[in-house]
Amino acid sequence: MNYTNPKIRDGLAAEYVLGTMPERARRRFEAQLKTSPRLRGAVSEWERRLTPMAAEVPELKPPRRVWQQIQRRIHGDRAPARAVNWWDNLGFWRAATGMMTVALITLGFFLTPAVTTPVAETSMMVVVMDDMQTRSPAMTVSWEAGEAKQKLLRLRVIGHAEMAPDTAWELWMLPGGDKPPVSLGLITTHELQTLPVPAQLGDSLDEAWGLGMTVEPAGGSPLGKPTNPMLYMGQCVKT
Amino acid sequence: MTSPGNEELAALLARCALSDQRAFEALYQATSAKLFGVAVRITRRKDWAEEVLQESFVKIWHNAGSYDRDKAAPMTWMTAIVRNRALDWLRRPREVQASDEVEALLANVPDEAPGPEDLAELSARSGRLHECLEQLGEDQKRSITLAFFQGLSHGELAVRTGKPLGTVKTWVRRGLDKLKQCLDGLDLK
User: Fold this and answer.
1) Are the CB atoms for B69 and B10 separated by under 8 Å?
2) pLDDT tens sequence across A85-143
3) Which residues, 6+ apart, have CB-to-CB distance to B52 below 8 Å?
4) Which of A237, B87, B122, B187 could serve as a FRET partner for A138 with CA atoms 20 to 30 Å apart?
5) Strand positions, DSSP E, A1-53
6) Using one digit for the tens of pLDDT, what is the confidence trace for B2-49?
7) Percent of chain B beyond pLDDT 90?
8) At a CB cut-off of 8 Å and minimum separation 6, what does B171 contact?
9) Residue B38's closest CA among A83, A58, A225?
């Protein structure tokens, strides 16, 4: 898609803000947004134009617990409140559900070796998975995006998770849309672990919406699909 | 967007950027009902809307420093955060939504937010935008409001309206073109 033509750029920004862009196009567009200030400008313009539509929506007082949760999440956060420049670059972590601190710590942890080797620019995929019951971060997963022969997931389990006897933890790729989860294999409760990705999934993994983890019978789901709801889940973020 | 005082909200955001907790609380008091309304309208589920509001405010707190008052009014900036987050929720994989659906039944959430089809409600308050929307054809207006509040793609809009994909795409594109001309102050005739 030609993003340099101002008219096309403006049209795409409009459809992006409105929400009509199909998923794949949206992802491509978001990747472009990272590197193009002009495109970001066009998006802000359209947000300015269209967002007032929401002014018509009637007000509704949220329950008290929402504020309490927000407080909890912010106070559990030991990062400096503003790491401004860094922050801007990582603006596209946006969707990482506010779990920035953990994501940053993880990145710092995993990127350190990568940075010291003078490799061509590679981007990392990062997923901060929340415990769906407590709504707090429970696991992070990262890997190098792109065409590696064999992708390797680096996992970090946060806190001291315990696995019930005769059960297994199974990690799933959630492709997005109405496509079913695809198994990535079984994992452990160890704080740090790595998991090789089946070769045939390598490419689709970079495009996935997110990752999830379910508790399955020992040995993994016998059905090839989750037999329980997602216990941990998070969205993929490209950095 | 107007009131409660753009100046005031911008000042609160500036203080949030300096980690001022009390400013953050004041900001929440001033804007959460409006933003929760937006989240409920888009997700149509109060439990999801609570999550969306929560995540949005955590994000607002962390990103207050990057708010630029030259680019957007404070309420526009915050509403865009909430709307984007809400649309992300709606775009979650269906499989995952399915188990949530059961919880929703249990939670018995009333649908208090009027539907986006209810255009009569698009009344005077958003002023200029409203006037401009009124200048669109019925189909263009309907496609744009549906997409705005539900994040429907062209394909989904086509299914919803029962019209061919090409037709829907044209409605949306022309509608947006006209809106832009109108909002940016060019004469439509």
Assistant:
1) yes
2) 333 333 434 444 445 545 545 554 444 444 433 444 567 888 989 888 888 888 889 88
3) B39, B42, B43, B82, B85, B86, B89
4) B87
5) none
6) 455 888 899 999 999 888 888 999 999 999 999 999 999 999 889 999
7) 44
8) B137, B139, B140, B143
9) A58
Sign of CA dihedral A130, A136, A141, A142: positive
**For position B28, what pLDDT does the model report?**
96
CA A229/CA A214 separation, integer angstroms: 6
Cβ contact, residue pair A47, B76, below 8 Å: yes
> Rounded distance, CA A34 to CA A30, Å?
7
Closest to B28 (Cα-Cα) out of B63, B3, B53, B62: B53
Complex ipTM: 0.78
Chain A contacts of B183, Cβ < 8 Å?
49
Q: Least CA distance to B26: which residue of chain A?
A: A67
- DSSP H helices in A94-134: 100-116
Alpha helices by DSSP H, listed for chain B, are 6-16, 21-43, 46-63, 74-90, 94-107, 127-134, 138-150, 154-161, 165-183
Q: How do beta strands A137-144 and A124-131 pair?
A: antiparallel
Which residue do the tokens 């649908």 mark? B111
- Residue B158 contacts residue B165 (beta carbons within 8 Å): yes
| CB-based contact A62 B84, cutoff 8 Å | no
CB contact under 8 A, B51 and A23: no
Cβ <8 Å between A23 and B28: no
Residue B2 backbone phi and psi in degrees, to 5? -105, 180
Q: What is the pLDDT of residue B68?
A: 87
CB of A44 within 8 Å of a chain B CB? The answer is yes
Closest residue on chain A to B67 (Cα): A88
Q: Where are the beta strands (DSSP E) in chain A?
A: 124-131, 137-144, 152-157, 167-174, 182-187, 192-196, 210-217, 232-238
What's the CA gap between A178 and A29, in Å, rounded? 21
pTM of the entire predicted model:
0.56
